[in-house]
Design goal:
two-stranded parallel ribbon; 6 helices; single chain
Amino acid sequence: MLPDALHTAGVSVTRRGDGGHTLAISGRGRVDLTPQQIRFAPQFLPMFLRRWRSLSPGGLEGMRSGHESLSRWRLDRQTPMEHMRILDPAVNRGTIRLTYERATELLPALKGRRIAASWAGYIDSTPDGVPAIGETPSVPGFILAAGFSGHGFGIGPGAGHLIADIVTGADPLVDPRPYHPNRFSQSAWGKVADF
């Protein structure tokens, strides 16, 4: 009997609605070198140093997509996001094999099951790993909700409620101040971005 969900330091396994299982190594990732990575390296370096064992160098896919450039673009022309609407990086086959090996070692009942699909994706993150949620003073009325560091599905319902409260002016579900994007503008991080 396979568990519905199991999380270990080596591998995580979650039962899917179709009876299959999703396998992953929590926190494992590749870091694509991009102009934005270089620009914000001082702010992200402490996080990378804490996680260095689970990170490996990526390729140039992030740079080729254009989303991570330092360029500004005119809104009356095609933006990088319109040019490449779906960021679909190549899957690392070595990571897929390692994940499957760890899962079948932990749960022998998975042995012999075929891998039906594999996926890789980009994760937005902030230097402190906490989402940035709040109105941006430079664009009044624009509510930013980004930097979920791969936890969007887990904290999504609460974050959605908080965002709805901010948009509608209702009393917030939780104190929104720790999530406000301006925590990076003038702080120990230095001037990170103009929000």
